[in-house]
Specification:
One of its GO terms (biological process) is methylation. Helix content is 28%, strand content 30%. It is of the alpha/beta class and 200 residues long.
Length: 200
Amino acid sequence: MANAWDARFAGAQYHYGTEPAAFVARSLWRIAPGARVLSVAEGEGRNAVCLAGQGARVTAVDGSAVALAKARDLATARGVTIATELADLAQWRWPQAEYDAVLAVFIQFAPPALRAAIFAGMAQALRPGGLLLVHGFATRQPGYGTGGPGQLDQLYTLDLLHAAFPRWVVLHQADYDADLDEGEGHRGRAALIDFVARKP
């Protein structure tokens, strides 16, 4: 998988742009300066760098060395520091209750079994009371053709996320359509899911 992502992220351009996802920009107020944040499958750094710019201590984990190198370059260009870790999420040893927030934006490369393992790892990495922030494509997204996988079982519904994080306190949830302008990777009308919850 890493080779495919390395190829996608090769070149000087940032495939999904250098600005944060709109969901991340809208959620900045939820994350206090100094908070420890884990960004899962961060890619080229746009969201991690934004959070670091707000004073968060961000660790970006991704399976592509090419992407993480660009993330570090972007951080340097913006005058911030992020930690990066190269990892295959199918085999990564998730930290235990180490982070104040865990962010997952468009991590829909995983089939259901791997997704369940990743979600369990994200829950494990959060301290009690920590924030989970998930943003991705809804199941009607293939009809738009503006990004994301074509496999329906890799897309989100709010019910799926509620089931994955039972008894968590849901602070925000939304299933909506919006126009994306995120580099060449995400451009045009898209079907989106937002989910913000607090770990018990």
